[in-house]
Amino acid sequence: MNWLSLAFSQIVNGLQAGSVYALVALGYSMVYGIILLLNFAHGDLIMVGAYTAFYAMTAFHLHPVVSVALAILISTALGVLVEKIAYTPLRSAPRLSLLITAIGISFLLENGAQLIFGADTKSMDPFVRGVLTLGNATVSYAALITILVSVIAMVGLTLMVKKTKLGKAMRAVSEDMGAAQLMGISLNKTISFTFAVGSALAGIGSVLYLCAYPQASPTMGSMLGLKAFVAAVLGGIGSIPGAMLGGFSIGLLEALVSAGGLSEWKDGVVFAVLIVVLLVKPAGILGKKIPEKL
Amino acid sequence: MDHQSEKKTAPIRIPTPMRYCMNLTLIGGLWLLFFGLIRAGSITNYWSGIIIMAGINMILAVSLNVATGYLGQLPLGHAGFMAVGAYAGGIWMRSTPAAGLIAADKMAAALPYVLAALLFSALTAGVFGLVIGIPALRLKGDYLAIITLGFGEIIRVVLTNIDSVLGFKLTYGAAGLKRIPKFSDFTLVFVCVILCCGLIHMLMKSRHGRAILSIRESEIAAESVGIRVTYYKTLAFVFSAMLAGVAGCLYAGYLGSLYPSTFKFMKSIEILGMVVLGGMGSMTGSILSAGVLTVLPELLRSVADYRMVAYSLILVLMMIFRPRGLLGGYDFSMSRVLEQGLNALLRPVPQQKGAGTNERSAK
């Protein structure tokens, strides 16, 4: 029984971390799907969101709900701003330039945060407390909220992409940018909207991250972002359920590796999975095989 | 008569042996200048350390330039190869009698060990380059970037944790590999920089180099004229990794202690920044920007906090306003500059003089 409840709590831990990865992976996947850009700065939006929520709650003593809304708002605004300033001028440039720009923006956000907030890790009291007891096993409310929110976000996103007009425009642009433009779809609007949605998801992810580990540091986003990217590739880039599946798989895998006493090897294992996926099935689990554009 | 007039108007060309002599003189003079200044104490220990670091960064930048500028790929795991080279060199130097010789200040006696360490580092990094390159180079673009990033991170994780698995002391994990004999002095680094640049130059001017450039321009076209694309991609990648290994070995010999956390993803990006700022595909650009980006932060100590912010801002602005980098594909050649100068002086009639070379630099 003891063994079972341990396994259960590890699975919950894995799902909780996986939810955050999944939300971030969704953002990666959407942006990659539409302009084929590996948005390195995406992970750092999480860092910005986390700092926003952190300061809203500790320095300004705002209500958690207000802080959460603020965090989502600011990361969304920043995501769109970055797209407008840095990525739009490069839309017709070689992909390499775009990728290097994204790396530069990521670097800029990280070092800017370090300058403004300091290099140290800032910790706060957890703002979601309490556990739910189910027989022998316990689930923290934080984990419960995290998993629920991410599932809701995924369902909402799927509905939006499938049913709304903007979602249709997004799918059209990702399929063929030129043809979509000829059909009267505003490229700028659609791409900005994609960035806004992706960044909002990163904002939600940042708040959920804070639920799980109530601390913020300037470099927290880079590793999180990279792992989320691995999740997106694993699930199949450009696919919403794929990103979700990839995120949960990576979370569970990490929990498994940690439970096996190899937590030091966690990062290595995640990247090993990435390499295996890229070599064996580059389209990912649920992705369609798209030939690379020349 | 006719023949003579043709000779008179033909652009002046400096004969090849003379070009070599000129370049060797220039290199020798540069070495003598710095060496003399260091000996005379005009360059302090602190600054000669920075010059050594600049040299190491130059090797890193020109080696990454082979894969990025010439081959047209974007590997993000260059720090991983540097780490492999550094640890290989460090472990080698610690386990040979060289440590005692260097401690006793017998540099001449230790030289064979140092050269062997450099070779060993290059070979180890090259083997890693081969093992990583063969699967990674099957992918393109972003996927190649991300898979090399993954490999780079795995190298770091392995370096951190390998001792606990193998059960013996090899890399000393996160605590760091310490007490490596410090063998990197100015002359050694200088010679290595010149050798690396010379090797790259020789490779790129050969038919193998042209094959590599053709892959950058169009892989399909290159393949269709019979160039072995996979072979040359791997060749350039392994070559780039080997030189990074040499830089890593010099780094180990300069600092005397190594920590896996030095070789994070950030380090790879820093090297990439040097290549991008200098101009992808320009060795001169890589060397200049590696030098400037190493020395400048030391001059701007007072605003050191803003260093990385400025660095990343420059990277972004550069991509938006001048995506080809400062020098673009331009490479400095003293003989070419001299030829142009002589032609302008002695052949005032605007003929087709140096049309080929002008075209390249103005591109």
Structure description:
The complex is a heterodimer of chains A (294) and B (363). Chain A is mostly helical. Chain A has one domain (2-280): ABC transporter involved in vitamin B12 uptake, BtuC. Chain A is 73% helix and 4% strand. Chain A has helices at residues 2-35, 42-58, 64-87, 95-117, 141-163, 165-175, 177-182, 187-212, 220-235, 240-259, 266-280, and strands spanning 122-123, 131-134, 137-140, 215-216. In chain A, the strands form two sheets. In chain A, strands 1-4 form a two-stranded antiparallel ribbon. Chain A has a two-stranded antiparallel ribbon with strand order 2-3. The longest helix of chain A has 34 residues, at 2-35. The radius of gyration of chain A is 19 Å and the shape is globular. Chain B has a domain at 15-266: ABC transporter involved in vitamin B12 uptake, BtuC (Orthogonal Bundle). Chain B has helices spanning 2-9, 16-40, 45-70, 78-95, 98-103, 107-136, 141-166, 186-205, 207-217, 219-224, 229-255, 265-278, 283-299, 307-321, 334-346, 355-362. In chain B, helix 3 (45-70) packs parallel to helix 8 (186-205), helix 3 packs antiparallel against helix 11 and helix 4 packs antiparallel against helix 6. The longest helix of chain B has 30 residues, at 107-136. Chain B is globular. Chains A and B meet through helix 4, helix 9 and helix 11 of A and helix 7, helix 12 and helix 14 of B.
